[in-house]
Amino acid sequence: MSSPPAKRIKVDVEQEACSTTGEHKQENTTLPWGEHCVGITEFVNASIPGFTGIIKHRYTDFLVNEIDEEGQVVHLTDFSLPKSTPLEPPKEEVPLLSLEESVSNLTDLLGNAETPLEIQKLFESKGEEPQHVFIEAIDDKEKRTKIHQFFKNAFDRKLVTEASDGRIKVRYVAEGVDRRDRKFQRKRNDWNVAEGDFCRFVLHKENKDTMEAVNMLSKVMKMSSKIFSYAGTKDKRGVTAQWVTAYHVKPERLLGLNKRLRGMQLGNFGYCKNKLDLGDLKGNRFSIVLRDVTVDSQEIIDQAVTTIKDKGFINYFGMQRFGSSGAPTHTIGKAMLLGQWEQAVDLILMPREGESGDIAEARKAWAEHHDPKKALEVFPRKCVAETHILSAFAKSGQQRDFLGAIKMIPRNLRMMYVHAYQSYVWNHMVSQRIQLYGSDRPVVGDLVLANESELREVEEADVSEDGDEESGHVAVKVLTEDDLPQYTIYDVVLPLPGFDVVYPENEIGGKYNELMSQDGLDPRDMRRNVKEFSLPGSYRKFMAKPENVSWQTLKYTDADASLAQTDLDRLAGIQEPAGVPDGDHLALRVAFSLSSSQYATMALREILKTETTGSFHLALSQKANQPQI
User: Fold this and answer.
1) Do 532 and 552 sit in the same domain of this protein?
2) What confidence tier does 384 reach under pLDDT thresholds 50, 70, 90?
3) C-alpha–C-alpha distance, residues 622 and 615, integer Å
4) Closest CA to 528 of 418, 425, 424
5) Per-residue pLDDT at 93
6) Bridge partners of 175?
7) Could you tell me the keywords of this UniProt record (predicted)?
8) How many helices (H) and strands (E) does the chain have?
9) How high does pLDDT run on average in the chain?
10) C-alpha 152 chain-centroid distance
């Protein structure tokens, strides 16, 4: 698609962002920016009265502990160093197979030609496309072992294998990583650990997001941030614990950083053979404090929390997905899908309403002078998209190559914009589904997964660096009247728009067309000339149901009193705060576990029946004379 000429420099996105379909049912619709702007309007049980409570007044009010693939909740519990076994010298080196021999021998081993050719493409593209290849499940253990051993002397030893949900995942590795026998001497000097090439540790952080924490670690250690990997990103405003893996970094070195790090602690060190990839987790455990609760009775609180425990909540994409009102991420994504590259760049760089401080000054400087080098001097480094675009302009000396500049943004970030547009559409469609058919049972034309075991791959597509590229290949079933008794509302999925998904065969299928046509897009035509913005689509569960839900109320007097127990508190022997029996304020402490694709704020929204935007809860803090800390 060609880019239309820009109509004006300052882009008005707010009215566009807040267009909505269907009748709005939530309170606070008069806000210029709120949940209704991105399709979040319905509740599972709207009959229970709402009440107010401040979310994240203190960042310690929001505790997030990762749940790993084994179902264990990740906690920081100790700082001891692990024992290791030295590597044994390699046996006599086996000659490497040529590329032709690698493909031919693998074809004989697997008994098919298609998979080896895909693996050849993986090797020749250096992992660009495809980014990995799966060898389908093999029951014969001896044959699986032969396949793993085969890659040690094939494809120039640049492909590695690992078990993944019963299949064998083949991926390309950077020069020097996992180069086994012929790199033994270097390993012996630098990394003499038989248990694996990676140090695994718990990252406990406060009031900073995962990327910021990892960048801080790499800066202090004077190493590339690429040596660190993790299963999922955790938000800034909270206290979180998660596993991180580091390639050839000794735990002694990481432990020594604890004295220098602020707002971060590292512990629970060990070794492992494989690095973490995005999506290598089951979910997160949330322990949340809502402060200054105003409610008519304890019964209302109990009914509200019991609703999410027994019935769950609508699995909306939360407000974190969409950024701020000045330039919501989905409007940037829409511009990219329309091929309006200049518009997308303007939305990212130009001044935004409601912004202040250094970032606002930097945007003003760019708008006034359009000098990328000067703008780079004033933009904070945390503005990743902005600085990468400006760096592209500065290096090329060409400020009209908007697409080229956008391509300099890290891939996971630029894909976040188009995924946000998909999320915007999905939220609206869920609200339409509830308005038309309710939220208690499936109806004819709804979609369910043909194979429930594929759910994880489907729902984690958007958090993977691979984007949604594989997720559209999941089979779904369109429900008929005869199917309805066999399924519940918790089986129903809705598609994120793409060229390789099935749409519901009821009124909701047409609603996708109605909404997206208003934006100049077609849900069934999501291929683009710029290949990475071609979206196959994916599926997402309509409802979310938390596990291990618990709650209690407590009173307190000091507005800023600690009301939660972090992992560091436990290590220091500090007990969980019990509150003050005759306190002036009421707090609700609630805990639950969610899968990695679900938003805790949307569970809180079902409980409170109020907005979950940061600005709304900041206003509540200010109204209660409790500045957020």
Assistant:
1) no
2) confident
3) 10
4) 418
5) 62
6) none
7) Isomerase, tRNA processing
8) 20, 18
9) 87
10) 33
Question: How many angstroms separate the CA atoms of 96 and 101, rounded?
Answer: 9
Strand partners, 285: 65, 593
> Which pLDDT belongs to residue 2?
40
What is the token pair recorded at 146?
């032969």
119/252 same-domain check: no
For the question of residue 483 being annotated catalytic, the response is: no
Q: b/e per residue, 449-460, with b = 16+ CB within 10 A? A: beeeebbbbbbb
My answer on whether 202 and 277 are in the same domain is: yes
Instruction: Please report, for the domain that includes residue 348, its CATH number.
Output: 1.10.1510.30
Pair 78, 212 in one domain: yes
Residue 465, pLDDT > 70, answer: no
Residue 601 pLDDT exceeds 70: yes
Residue 6 lies in a domain: no
Residue 308, in any domain of the structure: yes
Are 143 and 166 found together in one domain? yes
State how far the Cα of 562 lies from the Cα of 291, in Å rounded to an integer: 11
Q: How far apart (Å, rounded) are the C-alpha atoms in residues 508 and 469?
A: 24
Same domain, 205 and 83: yes
| Percentage of the chain lying above the pLDDT 90 cut | 67
In-domain check, residue 1: no
Predicted confidence (pLDDT) at residue 611 exceeds the cutoff of 70: yes
**Cβ atoms < 10 Å from Cβ of 222:** 6
- The answer on 446 and 433 residing in a single domain is yes
The count of structural domains within the chain is 5
Angle at 458 between CA 453 and CA 461, to 5 degrees: 140
Strand pairing category for 283-294 and 62-67: antiparallel
| Boundary of a domain, candidates 180, 214, 236 | 180
Please measure the distance between the N-terminal and C-terminal CA atoms of the chain and give it in whole angstroms. 47
Domain that holds residue 604: 41-61+284-315+545-625
Q: Quick one: pLDDT band at residue 470, thresholds 50, 70, 90?
A: very low
User: What is the chain's percent helix, strand, coil content, to nearest 5?
Assistant: 40, 15, 45
Do 520 and 445 fall within a single domain? yes
Catalytic residue among 61, 178, 235, 500: 235
Residues 168-196 have pLDDT tens digits of: 999 988 654 444 444 434 444 478 888 99
Helices 411-437 and 384-396: crossing angle in degrees, nearest 10, is 140
CATH of the domain at 510: 3.30.2350.20
pLDDT of res. 188: 40
CB atoms within 10 A of CB 202: 22
**Nearest-angstrom CA–CA distance, 365 and 363:** 5
Structure confidence at residue 453 as a pLDDT band (50, 70, 90)? low
Confirm whether 205 is domain-assigned: yes
Closest CA to 70 of 247, 233, 200: 200
pLDDT tens per residue, range 91-129: 656 678 899 999 999 999 998 989 999 999 999 888 888
Please give, one letter per residue, the 3-state secondary structure of 380-425: CCCCHHHHHHHHHHHHHCCCCCHHHHHCCCCHHHHHHHHHHHHHHH
